[in-house]
Structure formats: C-alpha cells, structure tokens
Amino acid sequence: MLSSRAKYALRACGFLAERQREQQEWALSPEIAEAEDIPRKFLEAILVELRDGGIVESRRGRYGGYRLAGPADRVAASDIIRIVDGPLALAPCASKTQFGPCSDCLDLRLCALQPMLRKARDAVAGVLDGYMLSQLIRDRRARRPRAARSRRQHAKGEAFRSK
C-alpha cells in the first residue's frame, strides 16, 4: 500500500513540476504545503528526503525554496516512491533492490508465493516507471475543470435534482 508520505511526495513534486512548466522555478515549503494540503512539518521532512535522493534542489535565502532537480519528463513516479517508501515489491523476496527472504520463509527455493509476488512487482514497476511527473501534471490539469464543475453543481444542488 502506498504510504501517506509517498502520496504527499508525489503531490509536492507535481506542484513543483507545474511551477517548472510555468517558469516559476523556486517554491517555498509553506506555499507547497498550503496548495497541496500537506502538513508543513511533514512536508519539510519529505522535501529533505527528495533533495537527498536527487529529485529536488533546495536553496536558502530570500529567493530560495525548492524546485525539481531536472525536467519533469525525466522523473518517474517510481523514483519518488522508492525514495520515500523503499522498494515497490510487496515482500523482500520479490524485491530487485533489497532482495532477501521473508521473515517467515522456511525455504526460499520452495516458496510458492515468490513467482506471483515478482509478477505483481513487475506490473506495478512497469506502470510507475513509465509514469513521469509531466504526465502527472497533464492528468491534474485535465481533472481540475471537471472537479471544479462538480463542486459548483453540488453547491447549487444540481447533482441531486431528480430526473
């Protein structure tokens, strides 16, 4: 399951990708936290992890803040998730980067679950490795008008009118 930290990291990076696209490179953590509804202290710790992982850059001072370290079309969702949550595999025996036997495994060579878990890892990695931040911001932009329209209809009671 994807942790809240990973979801927040993806949302923060999506915000930074949009800023990059709009030529507004640096963003302060309070600005990101407010825009993405992320607890500020939690976000700051996540941004440090992302900086240490090479996804974002930080700069101190009056014109400082955070920005993506590279182009949004070269940062995969899997890169962000791996930095924040670790391997994509459901179990250590299926991990490519942190392989090991499960704590309750009697004999890894006889494990009937490992092939299934590897297929699940490969399927998830296939999607997330190919899903770039540039796609995330395109998807966000495509959904915004619909979500705003839906909220307006709900506020006016249009969503609940009988047919």
The gist of it:
The protein is mainly α and 163 residues long. It has helices spanning 4-21, 29-36, 40-52, 77-85, 114-129, 133-156, and strands spanning 56-59, 65-68. Helix content is 54%, strand content 5%.
What does this protein structure show overall?
The protein is mostly helical. The protein has a domain at 4-86 and 132-160: Arc Repressor Mutant, subunit A (Orthogonal Bundle), CATH 1.10.10.10. It has six helices and two strands; from the N terminus they run H-H-H-E-E-H-H-H. A two-stranded antiparallel ribbon has the order 1-2. The longest helix is centred in the last third of the chain and has 24 residues, at 133-156. It starts with a helix and ends in a 7-residue tail after the last helix.
Architecture blueprint of SSEs:
Blueprint: H1 4-21, H2 29-36, H3 40-52, E1 56-59, E2 65-68, H4 77-85, H5 114-129, H6 133-156
Antiparallel strand pairs: 1-2
Helix pairs in contact: 1-2, 1-3, 1-4, 1-6, 2-3
